[in-house]
Design brief:
- The structure holds 2 protein chains of 2 kinds.
- By secondary structure, chain A is of the alpha/beta class.
- Chain A has 2 domains: 242 residues, Rossmann fold (3-Layer(aba) Sandwich), CATH 3.40.50; 40 residues, no CATH class.
- Helices cover 41% and strands 21% of the residues of chain A.
- By secondary structure, chain B is of the alpha/beta class.
- In chain B, a hairpin with a 5-residue loop joins strand 1 and strand 2.
- In chain B, the strands form 2 sheets. Chain B has a 6-stranded mixed beta sheet, with helices on both faces. A 4-stranded antiparallel beta sheet of chain B has the order 2-1-4-5, covered by helices on one side.
- Chain B has 11 helices and 10 strands.
- The chains are: A alpha/beta, B alpha/beta.
- Chains A and B meet through helix 7, helix 11 and helix 12 of A and helix 6, helix 10 and helix 11 of B.
């Protein structure tokens, strides 16, 4: 059974003339890390809103097709159940803050679903440790840096230990150190906690090395679904849509086009270093 | 006389927190500068000090001959330096686009028809169509609101414009649009441009000079290439050079300049390095390869 399945999903926002999603088919297995890319207005946020059931439950419009979460139609899943299945982190962390301290913020969702007190304590500790916000627990969530806010937002969502975590442009508003920390948190959740993770990001360089699968969205359609090394082969196609693969991938893609490189496309600095060694060994022979 | 002269500038917030700890800095007319640094490094405080929005605790900021600490100079200052906030909504408050752009010149006591002319010109330069003049700014896209914010700054005709995080939260296309627009202001209209940003690809593609702040001091100040070629110092600001620069530095290949800042430059360097190596081994290179680029000499193996 897939963690997430979209079958022929077409969605038009109320009052909109054109549909925002057109015949989207997508299957994500449990434990997969999926990176959703594409230009702004392509439908990326709409797509993940549909997975979370915000569409059609909280937003009005016309939906065709099925969105299944662990086999059940998302609109039929009761909110407390869905809250344990899917967590959602927004680009702007403040938009989800409601409490006066960081700790209360993290506790909020847990209390809502009625966990016993000791479980809540353990969960808060766990979520705060992974996100590195232990020292901020008694601070007001408004009085910390942008990067810290985003980590608090992630903590409050993962405290519920959802099986699926969706992050919509989680690094868009924060500084370089903050971006690195968010990427590291995602890596830990993937590697050590087997979460199914769906990230919408323009910062492809940071997330491509983690991704099992990349979903390219353009004009409301899913244009391609493939592992990153495959999807980034179509360099000119992506650049024409203003989607920029990691620079290291671009460099080796160009070298491949010139017949100078024959190995796998690298996705990270480390792979780029290894790729260059391989290439030189080939050239020296 | 330089356009901006900063001498031993310090700034403390009211609660005593030091934000700037002694900065000396000069800007000549016509520069395109990126201020970079970690959150809390003082870069926004510094940028606001340059625009006279914050008064120095000690030291001096002189903008085109005007000391920003002097009383009653704000009208003089806004004609010399403008500041565009990261969030355009922090500075847009009028009910329609025209009134927004006309607000500055109105405050400076400029009347129609001159004011009307200035408004239309600033709007045209900023790419705000006159058809939008009667719209309420809040119902327009963020990109347009930012242009309106820039137009209202341009309407004061300042020599220098500081833009705080022009591309944050924008996608590639929108970022390129804004940056190309700032480049036009710089190249064609002769404005001095200072951006505050976290986006290193943007810095690499557009800025001529980079100033990196760390803990309230200037850590690095030089051409964009020079600054990115110093990864050890940059690391202290938590800023990474663009990935291609990091690769060139990690490879340490004599045929590849360590200050490349674009994909094309690194590809050229790599091609010339390979060509240099394989000139002694005829089988090593495919016919599609180009000869060594003029940037880096081929390498003897």
């Amino acid at each position: 059974m897939n963690a997430i399945e979209l079958n022929g999903v077409t969605w038009r926002y109320e009052h909109a003339e054109e549909p925002a999603l057109v015949d989207v088919n997508l299957a994500i297995s449990e434990g997969e890390f999926v990176l959703v890319i594409g230009p702004n207005e392509a439908g990326k946020t709409t797509l993940v809103s549909a997975i979370k059931g915000l569409i059609p439950n909280a937003i009005t419009g016309v939906l065709k097709g099925d969105v299944l979460v662990f086999g059940d139609r998302v609109e039929s899943i009761k909110p407390p159940v869905l809250a344990k299945q899917i967590g959602f982190v927004f680009a702007d962390p403040e938009s989800q803050f409601t409490a006066l301290t960081v700790e209360e913020e993290i506790v909020f969702g847990l209390e809502n679903v009625g966990w016993p007190r000791e479980t809540i304590g353990e969960r808060v500790e766990w979520a705060a440790r992974i996100t590195g916000v232990e020292d901020l627990l008694d601070k007001p969530p408004y009085d910390i840096s942008g990067g810290q806010k985003q980590r608090v937002a992630i903590a409050s969502v993962i405290a519920m230990q959802p099986r699926i975590l969706i992050l919509d442009e989680p690094t868009a508003m924060i500084d370089p150190l903050g971006k690195d920390l968010v990427v590291r948190i995602c890596a830990e959740l993937k590697n050590d906690h087997d979460m199914t993770i769906v990230v919408v990001e323009h910062n492809i360089e940071a997330f491509a090395p983690l991704a099992d699968k990349v979903v390219m969205v353009n004009e409301g359609r899913v244009e391609r679904i493939a592992p990153p090394r495959e999807i980034f082969r179509d360099l000119d196609h992506l650049l024409a849509r203003d989607v920029h693969p990691p620079q290291v991938t671009q460099v080796f893609g160009r070298l491949r086009e010139r017949g100078l490189y024959h190995g796998e496309l690298p996705l990270s600095d480390e792979e780029g270093f290894a790729g260059w060694r391989t290439l030189l060994d080939g050239a020296a022979r | 006389m330089s356009l901006l002269e900063v001498n031993d500038l310090t700034f403390r917030y009211e609660d005593g927190t030091p934000a700037l700890r002694g900065i000396d800095f000069t800007v000549e007319e016509g520069e395109f500068i990126a201020l970079i640094g970690q959150n809390g490094s003082g870069k926004t405080t510094f940028a606001k000090s340059l625009a006279g929005l914050l008064r120095p605790t000690t030291g001096r900021v002189v903008v085109d001959g005007i000391d920003t600490a002097r009383k009653g100079v704000i009208k003089e200052l806004v004609r010399r330096i403008g500041y565009v906030f990261q969030n355009p909504d922090h500075q847009l408050f009028n009910n329609n686009v025209y009134a927004e752009i006309a607000y500055g010149p109105r405050n400076l006591g400029i009347d129609d028809p001159e004011r009307d002319e200035i408004v239309r010109e600033a709007a045209a330069v900023a790419g705000v169509r006159e058809a939008l003049f009667t719209e309420h700014p809040f119902f327009l896209t963020k990109g347009l609101r930012q242009r309106i914010a820039i137009a209202s700054t341009l309407a004061m005709r300042p020599k220098a414009i500081i833009v705080d995080e022009p591309t944050t939260g924008q996608d590639y296309r929108q970022s390129a649009e804004i940056m190309n627009f700032l480049t036009r202001l710089w190249r064609d209209e002769g404005h001095t441009i200072i951006i505050v940003t976290h986006e290193m690809p943007i810095v690499a593609a557009y800025a001529q000079r980079v100033v990196a702040l760390c803990e309230g001091r200037i850590l690095l100040d030089g051409t964009t290439r020079d600054v990115f070629a110093r990864p050890d110092e940059l690391r202290r600001t938590f800023v990474k050079p663009p990935q291609v620069t990091r690769l060139a530095q990690a490879w340490g290949d004599p045929a590849i300049p360590s200050d490349v800042i674009t994909v094309e430059e690194l590809v050229d360097g790599a091609v010339s390095s390979i060509a240099g190596r394989s000139s002694h081994s005829p089988a090593g290179i495919s016919p599609g390869a180009e000869p060594a680029s003029p940037r880096g000499p081929g390498r003897e193996v």
